[in-house]
């Protein structure tokens, strides 16, 4: 049972809901809902919104739902803009500092990217400045991880993702999945991504603009790595030469994630090192000991 005292001056409806939640048992869901209700009613008490203002809130939430579909995740964008996603991603207890920091997957991730052979070209429309990427996946002990799946996606040179630009880019442009070799290596060709502003044509973008929040994001490539015996890593490598590197709208840039796009005769190259944490999930014997 939740033994916390009721809030001083707690709304009678909130108190009744809180009592019902206490009867349902001390699980994480009821605890989360109880905390959200407490804070929500405290906000309502302090702001004393009018019915018209409350209707505007409900309309905003409705608009976020309408803007979300298989190609665009406005709810993820909302969580990203206000820092919820980055906070959760950075809260891994006891995280090894040698592991690659995690970042937000962003609202433009697609789980259905095609699997490609190492060295394949992600660019399906031939538009953009050539970029060659070489990567290696290792564990925190330095050992290469063979057979890891590396999912890659990024914006084009104009800062547009394929699923927000379906009329101008072919399906799955600048997306692909690779499997690492015996040395943990993978490689692909693509085009250099451009920086961009978060979408301002939806409810979240309009709200951010109204609040005076920056929408700028420095150029970057997303990586999601899955390997047996290791925790899944979702991260990004940012272009250190981008002028927006210090004003990322999502505050996701970390020193270890700033990459160097090296000039080459054909365009640019980028070396990527991705270090995964071993899976901390208790094994059956460990559970028996506990």
Automatic annotation (TrEMBL):
Cofactors (names): Fe(3+)
Gene Ontology biological process terms from the UniProt entry: catechol-containing compound metabolic process
Residues in Intradiol ring-cleavage dioxygenases domain copies: 133-161
Signal peptide range in chain numbering: none
Residue intervals passing through the bilayer: none
Keywords: Dioxygenase, Iron, Metal-binding, Oxidoreductase
Molecular function GO terms recorded: catechol 1,2-dioxygenase activity; ferric iron binding
Entries under Gene3D superfamilies matching the protein: Aromatic compound dioxygenase
Top-level taxon in the UniProt lineage: Bacteria
Similarity comment text for this entry: Belongs to the intradiol ring-cleavage dioxygenase family.
Protein's name in the database: 6-chlorohydroxyquinol-1,2-dioxygenase
